[in-house]
Every structure is written in C-alpha cells, then in structure tokens.
Amino acid sequence: MALTQLPSPAASPAAAYEGILRRQSSRESAARTYARSLPIVPVRARGLTIEGADGRRYLDCLSGAGSLALGHNHPVVLEAIRSVLDSGAPLHVLDLATPVKDAFTEELFATLPRELAASGRIQFCSPAGTDAVEAAFKLVRTATGRDGLLAFTGAYHGMTEGALAASGGGSGARVTRLPYPQDYRCPFGVGGQEGARLAARLTESLLDDPKSGVRRPAGMIVEPVQGEGGVLPAPEGWLRRMRELTAARSIPLIADEVQTGVGRTGAFWAVGHSGVEPDVMVLSKAIGGSLPLAAIVYRDALDAWQPGDHAGTFRGNQLAMAAGAATLRYVRENGLAGRAATLGRRMLERLGALAEAYDCIGEVRGAGLMIGIEFVEPERGAGACEVLGGGGAPVTGAGLPAGTGRVPGAGGPLPASPARAAAVQQECLRRGLIVELGGRHSCVVRLLPPLTITDEQAEAVLDRLADAVAAACRPGARIPGIPTPSTPKEAGAASPA
Ligand code: PLP
C-alpha cells in the first residue's frame, strides 16, 4: 500500500489509518452514515475489491449504494474518462450540447422502454437522484396543474424536501402514502397474490371514493423494487395494475429507477419485468458509471415546462456522461442484466438454504443482484417462529414463481432484529465483506454486488456471509438488546450450500 497516497505523513500505516478515521469523526457531521458502521479507509479499488489503508482487502457488496454496475474502476470506465481528459474537451458546459452528451443520450435512449425510447425527452438534473425526483414532481405538477402525489409505504426517494416527503419524512402534506405489497410483513397479513390484490384494491378505492380525502394527484411515484425499504420487488401484476389505475385516471406514473436501473434487477430497467411503460423515469446512480449524474426521461406530452423551470449549474458533467455511456454500453453489449438474473437466482437459492438453517432469518428475497436477508428475533415470538420454521423455501423475488414467498402464519411475522442485522454486518466486515443495511427497521442485510461479479466471487461472498451469520446467530452470541441467543435449527448448518 502506497503511503504517499495518504494526506498526512505518519509514523506507521496503522497510525495514518487511525488518524484519518479520528479526524473524520471529529470534523464531519453527525449525519454521516456508512462511515459509522464501516470504519475503513479505501485507498485502492478494482472490480469487487477494495483495499483499505490498513492493508486489508474487502469484497464490496455495497457498490456505492448500488451505483457501481461494473464495480470499481472498470477498464472501460477509466478509458472513457481518460479519453475526455486527453481530448481537451471542456469539463464544465452547463446544459450546452456536446459530443459527449450526445453520445450518452443516444446510448441511454437505446436502452429505454419502447415508448420513451421512441418519443421521450430528457432533462439532465443536478447530479443526485433526489434532484431528479424533485424534477419529476415539478414536471407532473406543471403538466397536470394538480398538486398532490401518491407514494408508497417503505419508499425511499431522497433527502430533499419533496423527495423526503414522498419517503414518509418531512411534512409530507401533499403526499398520500399507499400500501406497497410485500409477503413477510404484508400490511393485510396475507401476503402473496392476495396481499398484492388487496393493496391495489385499497389504492383504487382511495382514488375513486369522493370521501377518501385523496384529491386527484399530479402523479404516482413507485420503485419497481424497493431498495432502502428492504429489497421488496413489486409483484409484476400489482405494478401493471398501478399502471392501469393511473392511466385510466390520467395520473402520470413515475418509475424511480435510481437504484434498480442498468441491469441491477435482472432487466435493463426494472419496469421491464412487468412490461409497464411509465410516463416518467427517474435515473441516477449507475447511469454515471460511478460519477455523479442524474436525469429524468419522460413522455413528450408532459413537456409543459418553460425555459429554466428546472435548472442547475452542474447538469453537464462530461466525465460522468462519458463514464455512464461506457457503462450503459458495456452492460447492454455483454448481457449483464441477464447475467444478474441468473446469478441472482442462484445466490437466492443458496441464501434460502441458509434461511432454512437459521430461525433468525425471517426471509430472503431479491431481484437480480439486489438481494436482502431480513433478520428477526425468534426469541421474542416463539409461536410465530414455529409457523415460520415449518414453511417452504423462504424466498421471494423477481423471476420466481408467484406465491413462493414466505407468508407468516397466524402468529404474524417475527419482530425485526436490527441488532442482529448490525451484528451480521460487523461479522461480515471482520471477514472482509462489505454489506449494506436497510429495511423498515434496518433489519435487512443487503447485497448489491457489481454485475461483473464472477461465480467464484459470488461463492466467496456467500461463504463469508454464511460464516458471519453463524457467528452472529451462534448459541451464546451476545447481541445487544436480544434476550436469549438464537440457535441454528440443525447443528453445524452454518454453510448449507
Ligand atoms: N431514489 C432511490 C430509489 C434511491 O435508492 C435513492 C438513493 O438511494 C434516491 C432516489 C436518492 O438518490 P441520491 O442519494 O443520489 O440523492
């Protein structure tokens, strides 16, 4: 490890590393997030692997919160960035036309759902997903002359005021939150297709009941797979029903593909699983090939904006557009969405076996290489635990037969276990594996590996994860806040693959 890369001279690598972490915690805001649970100092990275200033190597299944479709520093991305730098092209161009932007837009439109590809428009935004979400809201409000928005429980759309309100934070005055279907914690207690049907029925009733208190909204925003909400793939039939309900009432449907886009879920865009054609798509993260970029694409008919209605100084990030175009092209040409679908299914199968072995795993689910493992506390719900333990493979996800989800019995789902999920995350880190936490109670361990991950690397990830679960769920494991340790259902069942 080259110490010359570190900002200040220090007596030893360990001291330099400690100093950086100490300075970070004393200077950066209390709002910092990943830095708290992942106290590492990355100095070098390639593909799935990050090397820390402490000399340790980690398998990175956080991937910049799902931004790194090709992993770290992929050669095609580096080459694209270098070619812009070497060309003498301006790096800052506001929203002027450039060959780099033109190439990015062409490449992006080649991947879009049919109707948007044919006649969509694009607005480049300030380079964060949340600004693109704000732009989408502003667009549909301008186009419809209406104000309110429909969003879903468990949604995450960003941290600016409007996006936060749609995510259940902030004032939320203009947002109606509707149930997002899920099996394990189904709001109707039934899960499966019936749970999805009831969720759609409630939405329809709220829209049509003149006394529901829900006025006709400017738009509906939905994640085709909820990411931060705990990796919840929308049932395809339910999403199609949302499309029918909104289309019949002239309500623009906004698909937030910030996290699900660019092959992540096993389709190039996650709406591709259901064939839904949204009116607006919100794009960020992977479209910038690891650099900041955000945009919305939308039906031409919605373009009621006046010049300057949505603006921003940094809408023309040339390096991100070059890196993004290279990424989109690589994912498309190498069929990486299909690869994510196949590998994701295999990984879910192996995780299903792990869930069978540990009653502290409530459910595993996912779509492509967007995978979640929900940790629960069987210690605090023995009755329900028995029902869960007797079920079939506790796996839900895109591409799986309908109704294979684990639907808890009369006892309902077991209590969420953020403490156990955090313990698993720490055990993973100890074993050189970086994973993300998410879900309603931060009880879901999330895997977002790059789409370029090899079969061997995927096995290594699952080996380390299984080992970490064994450590965090072993008899006698001390997890803060959990009364009695969980036990594996079968002795020695830590690595069931
Ligand atoms: N929408 C979704 C679905 C996201 O997952 C995120 C971030 O995780 C955002 C919007 C916000 O993006 P950003 O963090 O770039 O503002």
Structure description:
- The chain is α/β, with parallel strands linked by helices.
- The protein has a domain at 78-333: Aspartate Aminotransferase, domain 2, CATH 3.40.640.10.
- The protein contains 15 helices and 18 strands.
- It has helices at residues 13-27, 34-37, 63-66, 75-87, 99-109, 114-119, 129-144, 161-166, 192-208, 236-248, 318-333, 336-357, 382-389, 418-430, 455-473; strands at residues 42-46, 49-52, 57-60, 120-124, 149-152, 175-178, 219-222, 225-226, 232-233, 253-256, 280-283, 295-299, 361-367, 370-375, 395-397, 433-434, 436-438, 444-447.
- The chain has a seven-stranded mixed sheet with strand order 4-12-11-10-7-5-6. A five-stranded mixed sheet has the order 15-13-14-18-17, covered by helices on one side. Strands 1-2-3-16 form a four-stranded mixed sheet.
- Strand 1 and strand 2 (49-52) form a beta hairpin.
- The chain is globular.
- Pyridoxal-5'-phosphate is lined by residues 65, 128-130, 133, 156-158, 223, 227-228, 256, 258-259, 284.
Secondary structure category: alpha/beta
How many beta-strand segments? Answer: 18
Shape: globular
Uncertain residue segments: 382-393, 399-405, 490-497
Oligomer: single chain
CATH architecture of the domain at 78-333: 3-Layer(aba) Sandwich
Strand content: 5-15%
Taking all residues together, what is the mean pLDDT?
Answer: 90
Q: Give the helix tally.
A: 15
Query: Gap between N and C termini, in Å?
Result: 35 Å
